[in-house]
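hey can u check if this looks right to u? its 109 residues, i copy pasted from the old doc so theres a chance i mangled smth
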Amino acid sequence: KTRTLAQKLAVSGHVRRNREKITSASEAVKPGDVLTIGLHNHVRVLKVVSLGTRRGPASEAALLYEDLSPPPMPAVARPAAPARRDAGSGRPTKRDRRRLDSWRGGDDG
């Protein structure tokens, strides 16, 4: 979306060009290159079709690449109603917290 975000992704190692990690957002690309970008919880795979001559709207930019990304994974089904605590019951105790974590199906810590 922005040059700053692109630089952060590249420096952190989340961008690959033709299966090789790039370390800078200023790396040159050419038509035919395949970019693999790891975003939050999914991966985008883009093939460069042609290079743009100017910075324009997103509709023009979409014509410059082909999206080869795998289809998104289906979301895990969640229970209909989340667990609720009574209002004003104070902070959960350690025991309450463990019960909530086990009910949610995982341990984050």
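The longest helix spans residues 94-104.
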